Amino acid sequence: MAMPFYVSPDQWMQDKAEYARKGIAKGKSIVALEYADGVLLTAENPSTSLNKISEIYDHIAFAGVGKYSEFENLRKAGIRYADVKGYAYSRQDVTTKSLANAYSEAIGTIFTRDPKPLEVEILLVSVGETPAETEMYHISFDGSITDHRQYAVIGGQAERIRAYLQEHYAPNLPLPAALFLSRRSLLAGYDRPPAEESPLEVGVLERQRPGRKFRRLSAAEIAQALATGAAQG
Amino acid sequence: MLLTGSYGGSSFFELLQQDFPHLLPFRHLQHLPPEAVQLSTAVPFATTILALRFADGVVVAGDRQATEGFEVSSRRIEKVYKADDHAVIAIAGAAGPCLEMVRLFQVEMEHYQKIEGEPLALDGKANKLAQMVKQNLPAAFQGLVVIPILAGYDLRLKQGRIFKYDLTGGRYEEHQFYATGSGGKEARSTLRKFFKPDLSRESAIRLALEALIDAADLDVGTAGPDLTRGIFPLVKLVTKEGVSDVEDAELRALSETILQTLKG
Question: Do A79 and B3 touch (CB under 8 A)?
């Protein structure tokens, strides 16, 4: 009978974490930013149909980096979870906290049990009636969960972008200024600015919007907002 | 629990069927013995609803009364609901199952749109609703009938469209107007007499109100505009721009004019 080699749990987890980090580092980063009317989510995304940012429920949005098929599955699972809960109870009972915990648990279980961890990081953000009720959760490949205020960043270049935002973030920015800041922070993630800028994918959760708060910005809206933002600051 | 489900498609209805059957609205009704109470006199019933096409889309309207046997069980029930940005669903029949079907249909529309990234085509919505009506067939045999009308604006054909249903989930398109429920026949005869293609918004709303007033005149289950209590039929429009409500003030003014002409 062949004996399996002993690998210490320590080593095993380290290997898995390194594997996941490598996968995620290849992807581009995503920035979520609190602005005057809600939360702005910005990603560099050359594709117009394979989205990284999307709607989960009335006031909750999702963003994922890493392996597309994996965070796409997580996105759909989140929509199913939220819709079933909202149908069984009521729309107010779908809370970001409980969904974030469900994500954390599911991703954490895969990390410890499965041979291959998920190569993803996700952001779950939501708006409430007042700015104080804004929630932003960052859930990592191992299921670890952290909550953030003002801004949150996921992806390979997150460290640098966070450092940039720490220096330049201001609360209550109007949408064009917030989008302009998001793009500059994404560019700060590169060693050298790329020759050609990648198109942006932008979604917003607007506090004042009736019903479903999530809205995707069109390419024309993005271009216009960036031009206004650049002129202002 | 997040990743434990086995369903992988885009339909909320099928998700419930596969992974959460206890949440399905019609399931418990299928196990009632056939000789169970005559449910049709024991639960509230929603009555007359109608839809008609006009120049910019469709008008959908319903009166506000629900009856329970020979009693009025509600004067303010709503029978017309926004299904999504370009479709409205109106319901007649046993109020409980009707309202559950509306809720399920609304979530179905939103769920599909979120998962797939774009909304169902109007034909897709009509077929989906047919499947739900079909699921209700066993309950219909016990008297719990659900008869919806689906009306919407078809962004591809650039026109309003109306779909009616039978108990078995049969789906039929109506090209001008349709009315159903206990006062449906009366409402239809008024619509048949005065309907013209490409009516203006105002004439279409007026015709919808006239049809409901005629239905209320002849059918005990239907209530006309109640000027004293300030209760008016629910009227929604679906156009290219989306779904909009007709305000009570406008309905009051129109109702007063129509009732005035009845005085003779």
Answer: no
